[in-house]
Each structure stands twice: as C-alpha cells, then as structure tokens.
# Entry
Amino acid sequence: MQNINYATSRQVNPSGATPKLTEAQVWKGLELKIRDPLNFAATTSSCHIVSDTPTKVVRKVGYHDLEPVEEVVKIYKGAVIYFDSHLDGHRSTNILSWDQNNEMVLTFSWVGGVLAGTVIGDFPGIEVAVSTCT
# Structure
C-alpha cells in the first residue's frame, strides 16, 4: 500500500451538540490523549511514557500488532501538539483553532505514514484514499 498525507478538521461543538465543550475541556482531552492514547485512537495497542514534562512527552507507542515506536510529543498549550516518530519521518498534529464564526475547530493531520485504505479510527466512516491530485 502507498503511504499518503491526510488532514481533516471538525467543529468541536457542531450545531445541536450538548453539552458544549469549553476550550479548557478540549485541551485537557488532548493532553489526556497524549498520555493515554488507547482511549482515543482505535489503531493504538500500547503506550509507555518514557519522560513527561508540561511541554514535551516521550512515549513508546504500539500500533496494531507492530513493534512499538518512540514518539516525541511537543505541546504548545492552547494551539498545537506535534507527534513525531522515527518511523520514516511520520508526524501527526492536533491543532485547536477558531473558524470565521468563532466556533472551535480541531484539525488532525498525518504525514509520512498513513497507509492508503486505512480507516481513521477517530472518525468512523472515513477511509483514507489515494489522492488524485498531481
């Protein structure tokens, strides 16, 4: 299968959603996801924290049945989290931002390591396809 790059954005509080999450609640959830990804990402099978500071976490993460890989997670509170692994330069990001209507938006990106055909566990029904862009 081909490795591709992928990104998606979602409103945190879409119309009609209750309860409405605050920025602090969303950020707390993202911080929990760093340290305990098994509750957030279906593709994660294990996680061991190697070191942990408020701005950087080093962890060994297992995906599916693969050998765990070391990830360095850099945290820029209130804005962005970078997940970097030594797996062919793979990087994931979680970005918290606001749209033109002042609605909170989460953007997730995966570069250098998402396999075409992978179902994104955090977003049921979304399957990564090979881009037709040239």
About this structure: The longest strand covers residues 104-115. The chain has a mean pLDDT of 84.
